[in-house]
């Protein structure tokens, strides 16, 4: 603004608006010229920081002939990036870009937790506490191990946590967590008193494989190879257990998950079906008929361009109006039976071994193997309901295959547990004797920003081989730029950025 003009005149304000618009366009042009892949900038996060400092020194205008000082330019640049909320100047998005560049430089930590002993066996599951202060390890030989993930310091070993292998761990809050086992029980533990269990829960008739927790109702939800999904009321637990009831039953059950908002339940099966309970109400039990009824309703995969093919496979919705077993029940728990489309498996059956959900509830992540066990795939399916705005599709087409990649078919017969990063931009997938970091595009973009028109391949950001045996599980820290992996021989590796 010229100093000879009155500050309350209208003409200079119009000039200032035009100047700001030109500056914004200059910002966008400069952002678009940034490296488009993590490999393009060898400095990782340092590349991002140096770019920001370079932009800050000229006030974000692309020219250095302005009369203001460097401090004033830096302040104006920061203020402008804070106020304006666009795809190029959103601070939250810049933070995600920094994080994904850090992830692209991940390497095994020099002080990784080495658990290669003869006592605990294979590592089946890893779980961080919500505040990231504790890493728990579920082991094959009845043990649960606890570590400080920052210092890699061993905290505690629960030597006889169960009477058989420990399969899954779930934190209810920062101090209370649950474990499940092939001994058919679930155990509750308190980090403040690890000498004994809070209580043991009995109700399953076979191996208990995974645990979920509804934060709204404080119901613990477990599933096992007996085909049962059981809810446990933790509001009323005692030393003898807590009230429970069978919520759902189906044959060939493998994994069960709740969406982040607890509005849906997804159940994967060894026969290739994916069951989705919409508008979930865990306070009511469902009695669905035998699995033969569901199998008889299976339809072949659609290969055309109809709405059915956009859903990622055949689909059936069962509600209280059309299914006799649902009469008199709440219409909230409507059941949908899907046969997810698997690349290369159109004419063969498959087994859905691992099931995870996007942290924002936008998609589901599946690890599938063929019935012959000679191929493995990682697939991402977008939820058509409650997902980011997409071109309109027919209602109730819940899933659409968006991304996939073929996995190394190593360690046949073992389930490999994959996971999303906390921001949902990266996937950590066990890959032979190591792990792969996968993304939806080269820039590690949001799923909502890089949704393909046709099914696309996941992009490999980094492969890390740090184990001497098959990797079975992986997990991102919810608070630190770190992830962990565990293998068949019992070793746990921690990964952090390498500068």
Automatic annotation (TrEMBL):
GO terms under cellular component: Cul4-RING E3 ubiquitin ligase complex
Keyword Transmembrane in annotation: no
Alphabetical UniProt keywords: Repeat, Ubl conjugation pathway, WD repeat
Pathway: Protein modification; protein ubiquitination
Compositionally biased residues, Low complexity: 302-314
Region (Disordered): 1-48, 301-342
SMART domains: WD40
Keyword Repeat: yes
PROSITE patterns recorded: WD_REPEATS_2 (PS50082), WD_REPEATS_REGION (PS50294)
Domain of life: Eukaryota
Residue spans of biased composition, Acidic residues class: 18-28
Biased composition, class Basic and acidic residues, residue ranges: 8-17, 316-329
SUPFAM superfamilies: WD40 repeat-like
Repeat region (WD), residues: 159-192, 201-233
Assigned protein family: Belongs to the WD repeat DCAF10 family.
Function: May function as a substrate receptor for CUL4-DDB1 E3 ubiquitin-protein ligase complex.
Protein name: DDB1- and CUL4-associated factor 10
């Amino acid at each position: 603004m010229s100093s000879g003009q009155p500050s309350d005149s209208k003409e200079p304000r119009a000039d200032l608006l035009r100047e700001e618009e030109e500056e914004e366009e200059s910002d966008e042009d400069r952002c678009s010229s940034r490296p488009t892949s993590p490999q393009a900038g060898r400095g990782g996060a340092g590349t991002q920081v140096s770019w920001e400092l370079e932009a800050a020194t000229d006030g974000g205008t692309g020219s250095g002939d302005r009369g203001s000082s460097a401090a004033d330019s830096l302040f104006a640049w920061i203020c402008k990036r804070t106020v304006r909320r666009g795809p190029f100047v959103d601070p939250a998005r810049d933070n995600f870009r920094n994080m994904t560049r850090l992830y692209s430089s991940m390497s095994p930590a020099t002080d990784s937790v080495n658990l290669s002993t003869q006592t605990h066996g294979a590592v089946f599951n890893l779980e961080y506490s919500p505040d990231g202060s504790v890493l728990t390890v579920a082991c094959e030989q009845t043990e649960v191990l606890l570590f400080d993930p920052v210092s890699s310091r061993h905290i505690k070993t629960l030597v006889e946590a169960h009477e058989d292998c420990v399969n899954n761990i779930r934190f209810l809050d920062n101090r209370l967590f649950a474990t499940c086992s092939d001994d058919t029980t679930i155990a509750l533990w308190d980090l403040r008193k690890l000498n004994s269990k809070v209580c043991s829960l009995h109700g399953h008739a076979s191996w208990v494989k995974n645990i979920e927790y509804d934060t709204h109702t404080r119901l613990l939800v477990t599933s096992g190879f007996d085909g049962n999904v059981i809810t446990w009321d933790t509001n009323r637990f005692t030393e003898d257990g807590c009230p429970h009831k069978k919520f759902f039953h189906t044959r060939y059950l493998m994994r069960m998950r709740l969406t982040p908002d607890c509005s849906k339940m997804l159940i994967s099966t060894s026969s290739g079906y994916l069951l989705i309970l919409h508008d979930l109400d865990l306070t009511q039990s469902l009695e669905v008929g035998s699995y033969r009824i569901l199998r008889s309703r299976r339809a072949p995969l659609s290969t055309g361009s109809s709405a059915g093919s956009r859903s990622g496979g055949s689909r059936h919705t069962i509600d209280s109006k059309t299914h006799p077993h649902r009469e008199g029940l709440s219409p909230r728990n409507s059941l949908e039976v899907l046969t997810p489309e698997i690349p290369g498996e159109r004419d063969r059956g498959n087994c859905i071994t691992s099931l995870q959900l996007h942290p924002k509830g936008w998609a589901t992540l599946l690890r599938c193997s063929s019935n012959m066990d000679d191929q493995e795939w990682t697939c991402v399916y977008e939820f058509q309901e409650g997902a980011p705005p997409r071109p309109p599709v027919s209602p109730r087409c819940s899933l659409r295959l968006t991304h996939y990649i073929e996995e190394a078919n190593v360690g046949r017969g073992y389930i490999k547990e994959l996971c999303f990063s906390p921001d949902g931009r990266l996937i950590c997938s066990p890959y032979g004797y190591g792990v792969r970091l996968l993304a939806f595009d080269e820039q590690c973009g949001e799923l909502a920003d890089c949704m393909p028109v046709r099914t696309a391949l996941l992009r490999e950001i980094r492969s890390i081989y740090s184990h001497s045996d098959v990797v079975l599980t992986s997990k991102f820290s919810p608070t630190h730029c770190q992830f962990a992996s565990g293998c068949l021989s019992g070793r746990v590796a921690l990964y952090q950025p390498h500068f």
